[in-house]
Fold:
Amino acid sequence: MTTTPGTDPHANDAAPYAGGDPYADYRTFGDPAGFTELVDLADRRLGAGVIAANDEFFAQRENLLVRERAVFDPEHFGHKGKVMDGWETRRRRGSADQPFPAPEDHDWAIVRLGAPGVVRGVVVDTAHFRGNYPQRVSIQATSVAGAPGPDELLADDVKWEEIVPVSQVRGHAANHFTVTSERRFTHLRVCQHPDGGIARLRVHGEVVPDPEWLDLLGTVDLVSVLNGGVYEDASDKFYSSPTQIILPGTSRKMDDGWENRRRRVHGTNDWVRFRLAAQGEIRAVEIDTAYLKGNSAGWIALSGRDGETGEWFEIIPRTRLQPDTLHRFPLAGRAVATHVRLDAFPDGGVARMRVHGALTEAGRSALAERAARG
Structure:
């Protein structure tokens, strides 16, 4: 690869590991505050997967989507060399006369998003890849219905849109890239130029489901991230993200929900606000305090709002909760809303919340219009 005069191709390298805490010199680049509060569309808990890669000689592509941060063992070697916790390809070669790879050479991996949506930002994490990270990365995205395999996605008629242009990355760092496209995507193609390793990939955005699928299901969870629910704001997120309340499945341990710090100001309480998939008619609500035994919310109340400027109205009055328990609330009346707010009194945790209902005609039309952008 040709080097531009006056530039150092190793300027973004991290220092060699010198012992001790491997994260002590870990770095962050880009703006992490702009999108990282949004759900990770490439979360394995939503059904995401790395379905293909052209090369994974040193480390498997599936490591890209592991939820936990990458680990580093300086003594761990295998038959192919140093074992790294990430996706790592072999070193590309050119010819005898031009031993470096050509400028266009790159490796790639295809990621199926757990839920289709609009991507707001991507984190390319090169943790522990200090001198063997890619010099540059780029990311393309596409929208293909159904469950296509690698051959279908790589076909000539599939149109890929570049959402992260070829960009420099730093070694042993969290590299943040803001995405401006408003299209709905189902798959990403992550390219590293010309080769190297990436530890983790996070794809933050907003889920945009298929309204026809929601119609077929009938009553659905209007606040689930899989169906397009979005966490908007909260009074406190000291221990864990409120987004976890609306993840699919059940909580697995105490920190797999929303837990706030202990509130000491009398006359106040904690709260979290969500936007539903679209306007819907709420019929029943579930509040789960699984694994929250001495720190669950004492009481909760649920309010709804129809539209961005609508007045808040009561859905569930203030109600006592039991620790480590699933609570079910059938609604006697019709509750049409686009947003809900969960109040916890005075503080404490909630593992999961389900808001069961059906889209209104206006909600379905709005969602169909948004989904059509893909």
Q: What stands out?
A: Residues 361-371 form the longest helix (11 residues). Residues 1-5 have pLDDT under 50 and may be disordered.
